[in-house]
Design goal:
106 residues; alpha+beta; OB fold (Dihydrolipoamide Acetyltransferase, E2P); 2 domains; 5 strands
Amino acid sequence: MMKKLTSRKLVTILVGAMFILSFAGIAVSQESQETEVKKIAGMISDMMPDIGQIIVVEKESGKAVTLTAGLDVDLKNFNVGDHVVVEYTGDMVIKSINKEAEKIKE
């Protein structure tokens, strides 16, 4: 009888520990996704200021990427045709955006 009671307690503790660890794993994975920052250099091909979105066409690949301004990002100093360097998160939210100086041809 005593062995059965001890094994039940052990199983209960193990299940509880696994439950707690599963939440810790979720928290760590969400944190790592938020900190993943990508960078793109290209030209703004379209702007939707009412919803805070821009479309940037990457300089090297020609791929168009739709990005949304983060809370601390102001897009009012940017226009269609501007060459920019944008850092953004995996969920396509702009962390920073800067105009890229165009190279002068000699």
